[in-house]
């Protein structure tokens, strides 16, 4: 990180204001070259930007943040320009011509913040989720993670684990002395308490459900009204509807938010027995796979054929001759709208229970797996009596904690994480 990077950190022009960030050892020199001098630290200053006094680029607010108490942990400058495309292009071209400066790649500012100890890995993942948040639940959960809720908890667990490990190491090193010949009397309870605390986090709703939406699959036989109900729930003509059986041939998904709860609705091909239509058979196989992966299935068919835990829906109640389904959870007509509001309210209430509570941090797959490793190691340590084996189990738990907040990482994993960010972040 000896070079200096720059990028547009605000939205694509045209806009009222455009913000260009410059980070690295030559940030101050770049600011002097454009504005003529170095302004007072952390105070907005009005300057005329130019590469030569005769050719001004823009009149802008400039800010200077000397390292290392900055967002990236190194010298940082910001240029608040007029947001026209030509203005931004001209200033970026001027920066690109300066020695030691280059355009940033996606996520590079945040990666430097991580490398310089300004944030840890869990906070970086929370920041990535915050940038992609589309609902209030997603935003509040990401804010908690980016603010270090999980990081502080892991540090607390790690400190407690280090104290336990020190007692075990004392037994290994000085086991021949009377006062340290056995594990401490409260060893088992301390290990059990730590494992229970980790288990509490593992039982929380997952970040994937929050990020991707609560997955609801509409399933049933052909011509049961699945596509019409799907269109009504997502409030768009997303699926083709027709009286012909087998109109839907594939799994069609649409992400929507209802009362701030993210959902992913899936319309599927009608389920039936053997068919000579090869394409329809593929659609049926995909429909069965979707049903198996669903968080909730809305079943629009014979109750005897319903998947386990599916909601029985009596659809098309506006049509005469429809067989009554006395135990249906909801009776709806996607054509007249009858029963749809009650179904939506029920879905929202059910979906909220599967989501993190507002403001709670949620574990992603990587974090969940590492905490699972830590818990397994702690449980194993509590069952061992040999101090050497206990020490190894505790070491495994520490490794998992360290990997979770970024004390032990791989470049491939970091590349995948920071590649989720935009160029100016």
Task: Give a written overview of the molecule.
With 425 residues, this protein is α/β, with parallel strands linked by helices. The protein folds into three domains: 4-115, Gyrase A, domain 2, CATH 3.30.1360; 121-204 and 356-405, tRNA modification GTPase MnmE domain 2 (Four Helix Bundle (Hemerythrin (Met), subunit A), Up-down Bundle); 213-354, Rossmann fold (3-Layer(aba) Sandwich). Helices cover 44% and strands 17% of the residues. It contains 14 helices and twelve strands. A hairpin with a 2-residue loop joins strand 8 (252-258) and strand 9. Helix 6 (149-174) runs antiparallel to helix 7 (187-202). The longest helix is centred in the middle third of the chain and has 26 residues, at 149-174. It starts with a strand and ends in a 7-residue tail after the last helix. The mean pLDDT is 88.
